[in-house]
Amino acid sequence: MGAMAAMGALPAGALPPLPTLGVPGVPELKPLTRYEAMRLGPGWSHSCHAMLYAPNPGMLFGRIPLRYAVLMQMRFDGLLGFPGGFVDRRYWSLEDGLNRVLGLGLGCVRLTEADYLCSHLTEGPHRVVAHFYARQLTLEELHTIEISAVHSRDHGLEVMGMVRVPLYTQKDRMGGLPNFLGNSFVGTAKFQLLFALKILNMVPEEKLAEAVAATQKPKKLPLDQAAAVP
User: Fold this and answer.
1) Is the pLDDT of residue 127 over 60?
2) Closest to 50 in 3D by CA, of 8, 97, 16
3) Surface-to-core class of residue 76, CB atoms within 10 Å of its CB (0-12 exposed, 13-18 middle, 19+ buried)
4) 83: which of 33, 112, 164, 184 is 20 to 30 A away, CA to CA?
5) Is residue 49 included in any domain, yes or no?
6) Is the pLDDT of residue 4 over 50?
């Protein structure tokens, strides 16, 4: 079910409000419809990225549900991001441009307009609108993409490897998603991850808020280091 359909029936002629993230500690990005994004002038750049995911019935240590396998990638600059990149709207549609970039980094997946999830205006000096796509696959299909990515043209160059996002939180309240969110992300990738997890009902909103809040707490020093602090 899409994000708009999940919002329920609306009065005739009314437009549904665009969904927001609403997680404390994460600055909101301005949402806009695909139609609005396509009407932006030539001074705007368009980036397209995709989240590939699959339901995962596995259990970590036999007791922690994995829920979903979600793919991200380690980039050449040491930042985490989603597969994709900038699309030159003079020559490509959003999906054609996205698939061209995905072919370089993954090699065996094509997305369509049906996989479109959202668009947001980015912060900063550059006029960029970030388009985000999400495609649910089977766990076997996702694993095939992971294998294919190792043999793609960009592997070891612009892409250093694929990673799966841990969607659980361990008893220490840091292991899993909170520690993962403490990494460095490129551009809008962290916002897009949290947004998709919420909108697609993959992680409850309160669990997302708890994971984000955990990353903002001062980290405790190991006992041997704490003893050395005067």
Assistant:
1) yes
2) 97
3) exposed
4) 33
5) yes
6) no
Domain count, the chain: 1
**60 inside domain:** yes
Within the chain, strands assigned E span 30-32, 45-60, 64-75, 80-81, 84-87, 116-121, 128-136, 159-164
200 Cβ contact list (under 8 Å, min separation 6):
3, 117, 134
**Residues of the domain holding 153:** 31-214
d(Cα 147, Cα 135) in Å, to the nearest integer? 18
Looking at the domain assignment, is residue 13 inside a domain?
Answer: no
* Closest by CA position to 176, among listed 205, 211, 209: 211
Number of H helices, E strands in the chain: 7, 8
pLDDT > 90 in the chain, percent: 73
Q: Which two tokens stand for residue 94?
A: 């959003």
CATH number assigned to the domain comprising residue 64: 3.90.79.10
Contact (Cβ atoms closer than 8 angstroms) between residue 69 and residue 164: yes
| Residue 66: CA count within 13 A, CB half-sphere | 16
* pLDDT tens digits for range 51-101: 999 999 999 999 999 999 999 999 999 999 999 999 998 888 999 999 999
Instruction: Decide if 219 is inside a domain.
Output: no
**Over 80: is that where the pLDDT of 227 sits?**
no
